[in-house]
Amino acid sequence: MRARQISVVGSGSEWEAQAEQVGRLLAGRGCTVVTGGGDEVMAAAARGARQAGGRTVGILPGESPSAANEWIDFAVATGAGHARNLAVAASGEAVIAVGGSWGTLSEIAFARRLGRPVVVLGGGPEVEGEGIARATSPEQAVELALSALES
Amino acid sequence: MRARQISVVGSGSEWEAQAEQVGRLLAGRGCTVVTGGGDEVMAAAARGARQAGGRTVGILPGESPSAANEWIDFAVATGAGHARNLAVAASGEAVIAVGGSWGTLSEIAFARRLGRPVVVLGGGPEVEGEGIARATSPEQAVELALSALES
Amino acid sequence: MRARQISVVGSGSEWEAQAEQVGRLLAGRGCTVVTGGGDEVMAAAARGARQAGGRTVGILPGESPSAANEWIDFAVATGAGHARNLAVAASGEAVIAVGGSWGTLSEIAFARRLGRPVVVLGGGPEVEGEGIARATSPEQAVELALSALES
Amino acid sequence: MRARQISVVGSGSEWEAQAEQVGRLLAGRGCTVVTGGGDEVMAAAARGARQAGGRTVGILPGESPSAANEWIDFAVATGAGHARNLAVAASGEAVIAVGGSWGTLSEIAFARRLGRPVVVLGGGPEVEGEGIARATSPEQAVELALSALES
Q: What's the predicted TM-score (pTM) here?
């Protein structure tokens, strides 16, 4: 059976430590970590997952899989630019946002449009609504995301 | 020379009257009205533009141009599902949101990601940030959008 | 009622004269000419259509409508890179290929995947199959495309 | 280091045995097998790869990762419809086509547009050109694809 896939989105170098911990915890819970395959938060989440023995998927905007960061096990080059944000949101059963700006907001919006539960870890876009939970720690973020999938 | 293109995004039947007025005013200012080509706010904005003698473009999620509402002059069938929201945001020099929910929020987020000025007419998603103005009437929305392009 | 939309695809500067004539003839038959909005064959088809008083739509790979050639009346910036080839194919009721290479072949393939009739004007990709007709002149290409839509 | 990724495209139930053997051989050579995640050739290639202990990625047209066939380890839901064919082509360092029709042809065209070597195993679309090799057996197809990457 396929492992549960959780997407981690966001940006901002100041959020890397938290993203790495999110990735580590998700891998520890047996989840595949899906990201946009780029740097900062995306790289940190994948790095954390790999440190914990997990698997990582990077869904890139460009046409070359080799643009993925070094912690990505499986690189998907969509060639579709920012439209790949839809794929990042859709490919996780839940989405955890760590920091981030407008691109991250588009992923949160798509995730909710598709009915995926979203957890925003402090500092992400100011967005509220049904299906969006706020977390103040990586531990809480992962807990909220996984428990949303149980219910 | 190509006419200025402004995108009108949103949803919710209760916002149709305001969207229609936005479309009418944009056409009166010589703008082409770009929408997602669907119903409710999208149809109303195009209807308003046509009433004022303007031109309308519909950028559809599906594979058939004939799915566009009847007020669309030029129908683009992207076949790309919700990923067409990026095209709607990118194809306007500015974006006006009227009502709307998660899909609309994704368009606002993409518009800002690409540096397009955004005007949210009351009732749209709760989103704030640089480059996003709030309007309380169609007249003000159009004025804010066009003046943002002058500066 | 919306005008009939026909897509003209292809590339290669040596095919510009024929593409321009295809555009001119389509406009003369009341059709909107849809292209990828770029140079060479795409620009020539739009130029021909405009010379005959027709309307033109350009569906671009990038994020800026201003990248469209000067004969495009309505510019759609998909931001989706080569994935916009699907939109070009889908937005025409029929597709006429003039010259072209691999990108053009992807548009022909998508057009057939969606059931659109395709006419290849000499020099285009070597491709055969049900629903693909070969033409030896712009006049014949337009005639074959429009008659395929009547049946 | 990331394993080499090779995309297997195509359709037609009569080609499943050959596709399965292609997947098996690719996995035996240490490659990750990338497919469109659907049935027939796509499922068979993934099944073969899994039988040989390999890893598989499915890049789906829809919005739900759970639509992937059961032999897919990592499911990417692009939500982009046929536009996902670009991602399938781009995500492999080389592309092997087994059987197939118009959708497959679009993937071959995109692969060549991006400079990826393509091997067509008997029965696929009639397409020729620089960078496209023909194989008459799964063994030869895999050999040609991998040797194209060495040079």
A: 0.97
